[in-house]
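Human: Here is a favour to ask of a fellow structure person. Comparing notes only helps if you start from a blank page. Give me a protein, with the fold worked out from its sequence. Please set it down just below, with no commentary around it:

Assistant:
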Amino acid sequence: MKTSRNLFGLLIVVALLASCGGSASSSEASENGEIVRGGTLTIARSFDTVSLDPMGSTDNGSIFARVQIFDTLVRADPDTSPNVGAGLAEKWSVSSDGLIWTFNLREAKFSNGEPLTAEDVKFSLDRFMDPDINANLGILAAGMESVEIIDPKTIEIKLSHPIGAFLENLSVFPASIVSKKFVELEGADHWNKPLGTGPFMVKEWVSGSHLILEKNPNYWESGKPYLDEVRFDFVADDNARLLRIKGGQADIVEGVPWNQIISLNGSSGFKIQEDLIGRMEFVALNHDVGSLSEVGVRQALNYAVDKEAINQSVYGGAGEVANSMIAKAKYHDDSVPSYAFDLEKAKSLMAKSSTPNGFKLSLIYPSGSEPHKQLATILQDQWSKIGVTLTIEEVDQGSLWSDRFTTRKFEAAIPLTSFTADVSVPDELATIFFDDDPKNAQAGIYTGWKIPKDLIENTKKAAFTSDEKVRQEIWPKVQAQAMAEAPWVMLYFLPSVHAVSNKVHGFKVLKEAWWDLEDVWVKS
């Protein structure tokens, strides 16, 4: 986020009204012409949708679909400061001590026409706060004590301590507002065709094949969405996805291969769109395997990778060599050193380890991802120079994440074709990766890392305060501490890259990596 949010000493009332209206602004109309309503947008995705339950899998195939179906109290908004704008709450206020937040709900309906109530909001946020239900990202609700209904259109949230990214946390998908009545009535079956207040609703879902969303006729933003339908086709292979847009079977292709970006620029019928997002490329390491629990060994693996050369050969120079163990965000310190290629230092660190002659290691990566196949092959060669014998295995993306990675049935892994942050501040990934709170199922991002106590303490100091000076001081320390630990092999900060048909207008990628498809329209 971009501005100070020191809440102490005064009552701050934030009243951010979401944009309404069914016609284009003058600037939008002049740039793109008159908006055309209706039609279907087809997106060829690299990710299958695993779960539509906001508390389900944290893969991008699921997340990017959920955000089209559900709303949150507040939502990511690049045009506000901080970058959180009104969602189902049209305004809110906070007490002078930063512990009591009051949210005023707008008039909104679920996709079946039933009105949104304060009971739905309380029910949803109680789920968000329950670590047994919000098993994957319960850490985002840390510090939330209670949710109370003040009246049918007002709720109050009490915190045990200030939370610097509280609004950002409420904008993340586990805090989606769901229908209390129908979740309780239908149980697990509800998530096959859930009710939401978002711009779209589920029409058809065939796991492993496609997901079709249709316009929510009861959406609260007047005149939106512009489209009648959005179709996600799940196509794991990079080149097969590109053939879809070249042949007119897709309007947008997700995950354009890096080494084809330059050659595809200037293509007939579509353009290449790059967007800066909170995306990180890394290799996770299981610390229970061999000598990977040793800092020196992990540092050696980092130093032994020629990141600059790989960036050019695999990523077409689009990557930025990372100097943080999480995605680049606000408070990032450019002066923290990255792990530059230093083979002699890597060999020296290995010589001092419990495995001076090296060890065997297996790496799994998403099948169909040509860049990750190239990366794995290069790592196989480069790590051999420090005695690490690497075997590589392609695994279906869904199985890799759900069956292998999150269950820690791996030695080394590239867990997803695209790993992104959900907010533009470091709080989310840092508290997930660097805090061993019992509510945090993803502590150490499934590596088994024994997180140093001082890193945990500094993460909490930075996250659990609204004092902007403290956050500016502590977050860079957290960045440096985590880099020194080298819990995984951190490689690059990367943009998102899509191929977008010239027929598509209004398509944008938020810094949080997902899309506002309610603003998209298609004109032949």
